[in-house]
Amino acid sequence: MNDALHPDDLDRQQQLRMLIESAKGIAPRHGDFTRLRGLRFSQPGFDRDVWTRIAEMGWLGLRLPENAGGAGLGMLEYAALATEAGAALLPEPFIEVQLAIDMMGAATPPSVFAGDEIILPAWASDPDGLGFDGGVIVGRGGRLSGEKRFVPMGAAADRVAVATNAGIFLAAMDQVGIQTLPLQDGGHAATFHFECCPATPLEGDPRPALEAATVANAAYLLGVMERAFDITLEYLGTRRQFDRLIGSFQVLQHRAVDLKIQIEITRAVIRDACVALDGGNDAQTAVSRAKTRAAEAAMLVTRQAIQMHGAIGYTDEADIGLFLRKALTIGNRYGSASWHRARHAALTERDM
Amino acid sequence: MNDALHPDDLDRQQQLRMLIESAKGIAPRHGDFTRLRGLRFSQPGFDRDVWTRIAEMGWLGLRLPENAGGAGLGMLEYAALATEAGAALLPEPFIEVQLAIDMMGAATPPSVFAGDEIILPAWASDPDGLGFDGGVIVGRGGRLSGEKRFVPMGAAADRVAVATNAGIFLAAMDQVGIQTLPLQDGGHAATFHFECCPATPLEGDPRPALEAATVANAAYLLGVMERAFDITLEYLGTRRQFDRLIGSFQVLQHRAVDLKIQIEITRAVIRDACVALDGGNDAQTAVSRAKTRAAEAAMLVTRQAIQMHGAIGYTDEADIGLFLRKALTIGNRYGSASWHRARHAALTERDM
Amino acid sequence: MPAIQPSPHDDLNPLPDQEFRAIIRHWIQENYPEHLRNPQRRLHISDGREWYEALSRQGWLAPNWPREHGGMGLSPSKLLIMIEEQERHGVARLPDQGITMVGPLLIRHGTEMQRQHHLPRILSGEIIWCQGYSEPNAGSDLASLQTRAMRDGDDWVINGQKIWTTLGMDADWIYVLARTDTHVAKQKGISFFIMPVTAPGIEIRPIRNLDMHDEFCEVFFRDVRIPAESIVGAINSGWSIAKNLLSFERIFLGSPFQAIGALDHMARLVEHLGRGSEPRIAAMLNELRMELADHQSFYKSFADQVRRGEPLGPDVSMLKINLSVLYQRITDHIIEIAGEHAAILEPLPDDRSLYPASAFIQARPHSIYGGSSEIQKNIVAKQVLGLGDNIA
Amino acid sequence: MPAIQPSPHDDLNPLPDQEFRAIIRHWIQENYPEHLRNPQRRLHISDGREWYEALSRQGWLAPNWPREHGGMGLSPSKLLIMIEEQERHGVARLPDQGITMVGPLLIRHGTEMQRQHHLPRILSGEIIWCQGYSEPNAGSDLASLQTRAMRDGDDWVINGQKIWTTLGMDADWIYVLARTDTHVAKQKGISFFIMPVTAPGIEIRPIRNLDMHDEFCEVFFRDVRIPAESIVGAINSGWSIAKNLLSFERIFLGSPFQAIGALDHMARLVEHLGRGSEPRIAAMLNELRMELADHQSFYKSFADQVRRGEPLGPDVSMLKINLSVLYQRITDHIIEIAGEHAAILEPLPDDRSLYPASAFIQARPHSIYGGSSEIQKNIVAKQVLGLGDNIA
Fold it and tell me: Where do the Acyl-CoA dehydrogenase/oxidase C-terminal domain residues begin and end (chains C, D) (predicted)?
């Protein structure tokens, strides 16, 4: 098995490989974390120059048809890039902006694709799940009142795409109140307050966009666990205790195998979710499986990575801890494992 | 930690040790299983001579006060004997007859203590749990109609003590219809059919008797897992693969430690349940913990014992399989782990 | 309904996969004996003879053999479909050592005479084969086997003992790994022999397993004298011959088949007990369904490799490791919910398709046979992860 | 309400256990600063000075020291009660290395001068101690330490590096294991030294842990020159001195304390989120409560041993192994149910007593420090189960 999320089509495989290759400039598999550490716990918590490069590479709107300003690629390609982003712990809000674009579709302002403007999606009001129609009420003249919570990197928004039960609305930030909370990964989440806030209604449905974001989040988690595992394997192969490499202890060998299995299952499940999404409909059960597996596997792998590093793994200085923090930060985003399990049960109940 | 279920009282400890010592004649810790194999899948599936010896040792009615024909001992002593019985896979229905005695109390016929007559308890109608008031209806003149199920070794009953919602009734077997099912441990379970069956009402409450039987069952399971573990440890210390003792492989060492921990926790929890029962009241949460832990630990230990024995463990010829069969057979008796978990939740809900 | 009815011995490789699948499915439905679907235990040849002969007549008995030797010569991707359709319909596994092991081995390493004598007799069902590999003191360390074959004039004389010979009581011939040189590394002194089980000195005894079934046998060899042409391949090449044979078939050790059956069993048991509405049980079933679907995704990633014609690496062991865990977890839950029914030696009297204890017991060997999970993890650690081999 | 108010420095050993417990409980309630109950992080001495001095005035700072040296001289069973009551009230752990480690060690192995100088200063809080045992390249294999102490005239000269020095920034003095002989087995060439952290050449740097707290330090020794009387016990006896000190205190590594706190945290979080009525969450809480109660039963079986005055064997390691699993499982579930709140770097804004991420992160080191779970299992396998020691 190689690292790609194998589609059967050989041309597409080739395209995927090139895409992953191209990601190296932004999200290197073997880079250090100096840039990330410099950005941690600052605002906006990422780098607008890198953002411009991301835009130049065509990552933004990659799933939109070419006639709508996108690259016409599929979920497999999106997931492959998200995996590379995860392996590099990329702090830029690539998945969130993509979610806003997927929500707005053809109505997406071109400045977004160019990276000149950042539109973030505000959809959540509950701390868990994919529910998007709470929190904000649409009043007369399309004015928004209420609040949306947990917007990753919200302080960076130039405008905000708000999902409501009456559709999607685009609002300028100057009339939106904002509060931020620092997160474990060094980024932040914002609460957006709307008080009779003027906004422009847009065509669009947040539902499929949220499904895609969920799978992208799972793919990012896959990258997180892959890299955490690689770093740990390397540690097992260099660290000595009791006059031998710790990687020669059978208990750690078998544990590493258990983690590898979880990583490979996650990859396979994400691939199936991508194929289902690319295929059109009824992908929700596959999406929920992907997110459940990815969240649990990422927590397991990063936890065990700390354990296998021993005391050094418990210092903030050791890079391995950045992976645990990232899993902790985004593991429940777009619905926790327990939320997706419940959704899966509800979706499949009628089939029993 | 030694093997006894430590009470704090030193005299009682001494008494316990003597009791356990005395059990060796009937339930030796290092005996072979020739007698058991000879009795498997036959009826009644145990040995009346051994039964007489059990009676002579005073095991029957051991918790009854001395003035009621018993030995005036406590739950700790009962559990200690049950553990020895489990370690020897004793096929005699010691716990069931004890349950009948505990149900009947002072009304127990002396012939039962002498081992001359076997009275078995019929209480279950559901396949899970400790509910005793279903299945049989008491009609005019105390006549019983309906059926009771899952009576271990039921074919051996000379009389039967039937638990109903109107109290306990003693019935002769000649008017009871009986059907038996062979069980995995080589014994059998009976269904008793009553059709206007004449019976004698007795004073007594099945509830505390069933709690005690549940703990005795947990203690028997403790003995089962102790002995299965000892046999497996010995195997790890003699079997060679790849030119070394398999007990030198770290993965098997750690697994053995995991099993040992489960055994020792089970012992500690059973001790607490015994202390609670001996103390009088409100022991149900402790009883449910004991049964839950014992059932799950016994399944785990015996499953892993098979795994560590490898292919030979999968043959009927290997004694280790007898322990898996026993755990399978009695693990859900007196309520499965899942039933006892639910009971624990219901009992503790009001305290939250 | 497929477009065509296949004639016996047709070459089905040129068909598109979907059509091929439809044909196979239809033919199995038409020809497989209904009472043999999803058997609770491994079939003896006497029970499965009818099906064996139907396959034989159709020319479908040996999907993996080249067509010139009487097989179907299926591509890996078609073979995968064939197996999937059999599993789907609940087709029992036959005593198939002749087809899966002996045939391919004779085709590659046998003499012309060996091929001409044996291949047709396997295809007709005249000779049923069994395997003599494992030994009581070798276990997972198969290469440490001690059965000896000594040259005596033109004959070989075999002494030793084999164990875990699947369906040995059904077999006419046996193939055996035996040591022919004790002075070299343990893998290098082993040769491959074939002989009839009626050869004087061979004694086969069934072993009753924990499920009370005589699936396995012990085989004793006491001065068993067999002619020179009983050896297959070169002397001392038996280990590499036997080892190389397993190639992409290793994917089947991790096929979701058994877990699907077990989960179906569990769902039917839950329904039988009327416990489907208990939230904890519903949640448990849902979790297991998700895990099974995930395993199917995992399986598919290896099946795709096979379909693309890529060789499977040592990482395929991960599939079997995961399946063992899942399959056994399902059957653990069967016992957990079965209450007193878990104890019963036979199927449930009121629904004989439910048999909790047997489901549980049958799942046990999955993590032992075909390379225990511990051995598989050693292999993955070493060959996939490159972790040091201080530990065998 | 206890019958008597204890006077400072009273001998409390003659009291019945129950009365002793009541007295301790009452005194803690009266004297422990309310705002320091159940602190989310390990306290620095500057935060805990008030409590340290209250204990000091009462003569309760050193419950484990003999009375003639200013301690309480408690029996093991009374000491257990003392700890239980502190845990029950949510009393913070002080920087207590002087009390738990240095005092007992000087009492047993120190010179009269060392005792006279140091014991009163520990009891008064004038000197706070920290530990220099672990090294970056030693880890769980503590005996492979490389810090050297060379004799130079009347002095010792120390060079090397220590790590994981708890609250090193708070300390006035440090005790150090250093190698004094490189030509013997690694455990046999180690000596025990004490020195002020202000000695020229010592540099202490805080390490920020994953919970963003500076609980630990690194300590660098560059040609640190200390007088001859800085050694405690005989030269090269440091390993056995340090190792024997830990006796029944090992039971505390497995005390249910932290798991109780975590489960309480989880229950409050469930309530805060209004999810208590979800069947899966209710079932999860019930299961964890049962497991915690079971662990308490397990703990009690060792505590009974301590109470009876029996020494603890190596089997007490099982207690810590089990606690690590349980404690971490509880905090895993906290993250599972916390939703987006799991991500937050600080306590929840609307209830600052809820802090899912920190609860989770703080549970991580339990299976690493004080002998990792892996090392503990090696010990139990070897010393309790008698399994072969091919594996260290």
Answer: 236-385
Domain identity same for C59 and C184: no
Q: CB-based contact (8 Å) between C152 and chain A?
A: no
Chain D partners of B1 at a C-beta cutoff of 8 Å?
301-302, 305, 313, 315
Q: State pLDDT tens for residues C46-67.
A: 999 999 999 999 999 999 899 9
Say yes or no: B262 and B187 in one domain: no
Instruction: Tell me the three state secondary structure of residue A92.
Output: coil
CATH assignment of the domain containing D266: 1.20.140.10
**Surface of C (238-257) touching B: CB under 8 A:** none
**Distance (Å, rounded) from C-alpha A298 to C-alpha A305?**
10
Q: How would residue D1 be classed by pLDDT, with cut points 50, 70 and 90?
A: very low
Asked whether the predicted pLDDT for residue A352 surpasses 70, the reply is: no
Last residue of a domain, one of C236, C264, C284: C236
Angle at A23 between CA A17 and CA A25, to 5 degrees: 130
Residues from chain D contacting residue B249 (CB–CB below 8 Å):
391
Q: Are residues A281 and A315 in the same domain?
A: yes
C360 shares a domain with C252: yes
User: Per residue in C130-174, pLDDT tens?
Assistant: 999 999 887 778 888 999 999 999 999 999 999 999 999 999 999
Q: Answer yes or no: do C210 and C275 share one domain.
A: no
D349 close contact with A: CB closer than 8 A: yes
User: Chain B contacts of C377, Cβ < 8 Å?
Assistant: 251
**Which tokens is B142 given?**
């105390």
User: Considering CB atoms only, which of A310, A328, A342 is closest to D343?
Assistant: A328
Query: Among A173-182, B105-114, B342-351, where is mean pLDDT lowest?
Result: B342-351
The two tokens of residue A107 are 């109505």
Contact C210, B316 (CB under 8 A): yes
Residue C373, CB half-sphere, CA atoms under 13 Å: how many? Answer: 26
**Which of C94, C121, C155 marks a domain boundary?**
C94
Question: In whole angstroms, what is the distance from residue D104 CA to residue D122 CA?
Answer: 11
Residue D212: which domain range? 129-236
Determine the Cα–Cα distance for residues A222 and A84; give it in Å rounded to an integer: 9
If asked whether residues A214 and A344 sit together in one domain, one would say: yes
Q: CA C335 to CA A228: how far, in whole Å? A: 37
Question: Which residues of D are designated catalytic?
Answer: 249
Is C241 inside a domain boundary? Answer: no
> How far is the alpha carbon of C297 from chain D, nearest alpha carbon, in Å?
24
Taking the Cβ of residue D187 and every Cβ of chain A, the question of whether any pair is shorter than 8 Å is answered with no
At C203, the amino acid letter reads E
Return the CATH number at A41: 1.10.540.10
CB distance from B67 to chain D under 8 Å? no
User: Considering A174, A202, A230, which residue would you say is the last residue of a domain?
Assistant: A202
Nearest Cβ partner for D339 among A127, A240, A330? A127
pLDDT band at A170 (very low <50, low <70, confident <90, very high): very high
Count of domains in chain C? 3
Residues of chain C with pLDDT under 70: 1-4, 244-248, 389-392
User: A249 is written with which tokens?
Assistant: 């202890």
Query: Within a domain: residue C373?
Result: yes
D280 lies within 8 A of chain C by CB: yes
Is A110 part of a structural domain of the chain?
A: no
CA distance D132 to D116: 23
Name the residue range of residue A177's domain.
119-202
Q: Are residues B183 and B212 in the same domain?
A: no
- Residue C247, pLDDT score: 61
Minimal Cα distance from B239: which residue of C?
A: C137
C291 with C229, same domain: the answer is no
> For chain B, how many structural domains are there in total?
3
- For residue A254, being part of any structural domain is answered with yes
Q: Do B150 and B165 fall into the same domain?
A: yes
Exposure string of B311-331, with b = 16+ CB inside 10 Å and e = fewer, is bbbbbbebbbbbbbbbbbbbb
Q: What are the backbone dihedrals phi and psi of residue C150, each rounded to the nearest 5 degrees, phi first?
A: -110, 140
